[in-house]
Amino acid sequence: MDAFQQFLKTFFDWRAMGEVIPQMLTVGLPNTLLLAIISGVLGCILGLVLAVMGISRNGVARWIARVYTDILRGLPAILVILVIGIGLGPTFRMLTGSTSPFPLGILALTLMAGAYIGEIFRSGIQSVHTGQLEAARALGFSYGSAMFLVVIPQGIRRVLPALVNQLISLIKDSSLIYVLGLLASQREIFRIGNDAMSNSGNLSPLVAAGVLYLILTIPLTHLVNFIDNRLRIGKPVKKEPDDVAAVVGKGV
């Protein structure tokens, strides 16, 4: 019984959670969303470039995209963040005069997201039947126009669930930026919980941070399922009143 009470006191101290949650909501949550959204948008742009390079007729472009994707997907995320944040830190400070590691954290997340999103886009584009490209070319489109106006939009639509999943991963990976030593006003959810844990020796603030991550990611998970079902099944067709009456009449 004493061990269970100690467990509750260590991980579910409501007073410790209550002290840290306001700061998580006012400071940590906006910074977490900022990291995930900016790196997600930039990662989509980079990923689209990598996807186009990956299916290009140019062998050098395909090789560059393949090497980049293999390296960035194969390295641990924490290592990429350290290499970008610490390795480029002096150059960044010299060029900008800023000591904030926040932009470097966004850059690291963007580079990693681009590698994953590039593969998502590539698979989606290649899943589009070649007849779509051939039909567009037959109508007079150039190869580039046919790809960007016909094939790529269809491919992106097919991989929307995977893109939302990648956004969920970015929200969680943003917690790793704390290793760069963010300013007090730039701390994300996990860093605030980690600082509170270090000061009190209690792990409850980290549990509170985990709950906030769940609040962010669980709705997105259900959104993925909704999009996936809608793409597979399609939008439900509502029957007109006349159609319903006709069906009832036949039954009678």
What does this molecule look like?
The structure is a single chain. By secondary structure, the chain is mostly helical. The chain has a single domain, classed as MetI-like fold (Orthogonal Bundle), CATH 1.10.3720.10. It is 81% helix and 0% strand. The N and C termini lie far apart (67 Å). The mean pLDDT is 85. It comes from Arthrobacter terrae. This is Amino acid ABC transporter permease. Keywords: Amino-acid transport, Cell membrane, Membrane, Transmembrane, Transmembrane helix, Transport.
Record keyword descriptors for this entry.
252 residues; mainly alpha; MetI-like fold; 12 helices; MetI-like; Amino acid ABC transporter permease; membrane; transmembrane transporter activity
Question: How are the SSEs placed, and which strands pair?
Answer:
Elements: H1 2-11, H2 14-54, H3 59-74, H4 77-87, H5 89-96, H6 102-126, H7 130-138, H8 143-158, H9 160-173, H10 189-200, H11 204-233, H12 241-251
Helix pairs in contact: 2-3, 2-6, 2-9, 2-10, 2-11, 3-6, 4-6, 6-8, 6-9, 7-8, 9-11, 10-11
**Stretches where pLDDT falls below 50 for ≥5 residues?**
none
Major sheet description:
none
CATH architecture annotation name:
Orthogonal Bundle
CATH class bucket = Mainly Alpha
**Total E-strand runs:** 0
The number of domains is: 1
CATH topology title? MetI-like fold
Let me know the average pLDDT. Answer: 85
Q: Which class do the helix and strand fractions yield?
A: mainly alpha
Strand composition percent: under 5%
Please tell me how large the radius of gyration is.
24 Å
Helix-strand topology string = HHHHHHHHHHHH
The rounded distance between the terminal residues' Cα atoms is 67 Å
Number of helices in the DSSP assignment = 12
Helicity, in percent? over 70%
The name of the CATH superfamily reads MetI-like
Shape: globular
GO molecular function: transmembrane transporter activity
Subcellular location: Cell membrane
Pfam family, one: BPD_transp_1
Family: Belongs to the binding-protein-dependent transport system permease family. HisMQ subfamily.
